[in-house]
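Re: the 349-residue chain
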Amino acid sequence: MTALDRIEELQREAEAAVAAAADIDALEEARLRYLGRKAELPMLLRGIAALPAQERASVGSAANNARKSVEALLTARAATLAEGNLDESAIDVTLPGAPPSEVGHLHLITQTRRDIEDVFIGLGFQIAEGPEIEHVEYNFDALNFDVTHPSRARSDTFYIDDATMLRVHTSPVQVRAMIAAPPPLYVIAPGRVYRPDNDATHTPQFHQIEGLAVDDGVTLADLKGTLLAFAHAIFGEQRDILLRPHFFPFTEPSVEVDVSCFNCKAGQLRDGSRCPLCKGSGWLEVLGAGMVDPNVFAYVAEYGYDPERVTGFAFGLGIERIAMLRHGVPDLRLYFDGDVRFLRQFGAR
């Protein structure tokens, strides 16, 4: 068999081996067998110089063409096998989605809670947390609730038994914080609370942040300054606040706190019509507050809270309501319906 005949034979064998390769490993084996460093075809090319002069050109050209032809077939077959792997193999979870999955973000309630926490942490408050299943003693008795107060009724509170309940506010955390540490004390208590209400402005589960500041010489002016700083940070630097007399069992005196409406000027829109957000009043109710009632301090007097020596203020706000006012949410139930069309409006900031 002449050298030219052998080259032709090797080329046919290589082409058949490449075509028969069922996977990348088999294809690599065929490449090494016919084009590897010690394979017969490359050896023929390296041995051209030893051939008679009249054969060198023809054999060299035939061997080189055969090598190029086999290399082209190897490249084409590798591409075909790669495409087949994508279509037929097991799912590769490292590949990007088609389309890529949307990156999630914090829920609006969580975003608002963190914004409020940042404000009060900047004012020197610390975060305190407590159990959601609470003792009636801490939820009502320690906070100066009369035994006939309506919120103690079975229809107004989720009782577990006569002594425990789902807390109706985070105020019990204030009692627990005073028991845990003597004054001065500056804490906020964020968390979930529960009441049997369900309509556009009330939900059975919602979120509160309550605050407590206890020290020597704390006054109502300190409360107003703290809440004014909060209003500026959350609603804008141009906001003002208004304190209106009210009643809460655990504070005396007690106040409702309004913030000047950020949607209008003195209750009127630019076109002269009545503002629908504040209903023309120019003010938006945001929270309740007051000076801590001495009876609350008397309950924890043994822990350093002598009502004759210390004073303090407390406040409580609903996170859902703050988010509602900031973003114009018309119905609190939208927060918890799980409708991504609503939630996507409030992407991560």
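The chain is about 40% helix and 20% strand.
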